[in-house]
Amino acid sequence: MSGTLRVAVRAAPRQAEDAEAALLHRVADGDAAALGAAFDRYHREVYAFLARLRGRHDLDDLVQNVFLALPLAAAGFDGTGTARGFVLGVALQHARRERRRWYRRLMLWQARVDDLQLPPTPTDPEQQSIDREALERLRRAVATLPEAQRETFLLVESEGLSGEDAARALGVPLNTVWTRLHHARNALRAALRTPEAR
User: Fold this and answer.
1) What global pTM score does this model have?
2) Distance from chain centroid for Cα 153
3) What is the rounded average pLDDT of the residues 54-61?
């Protein structure tokens, strides 16, 4: 490969990141077309991340709310890190707020109803080629992680964010990301090594 071609290949990802950053800046400026483009670019990834974070139940409204809030949130995007990481961070913040609201409602219901039965979270079918039982076991193991570890694990391992982007999305120091990942991975290894009771 010639030197010119190598430079062009290295420059392409940087140009794509610059274009995505420019898109977020246009969203922050109130450009409706840019918001539509951001939705087209990121909504599948936001949906998939939220589905892994909290199950596929009733996500459409949450995804829409993420993008309705994006113009205001994008004003805080300073260009450090990736635009994708920033958008997933906005989605995470909305999921956390919704979970807090749901928890407060649940506490109110429990104060009124002695035996509240909530419907189970539906299972998530994946690709036919993947062993469904092993995938379900992993999903259950991830669900048992403490919330902070689960969020960090999903951002880095499932969404492929760098440690730096995950730290920005979570609002924590980079060392905290690595510590949480270390504990999450160890917990998952132990859970997957332990035979499940039948």
Assistant:
1) 0.62
2) 10
3) 77
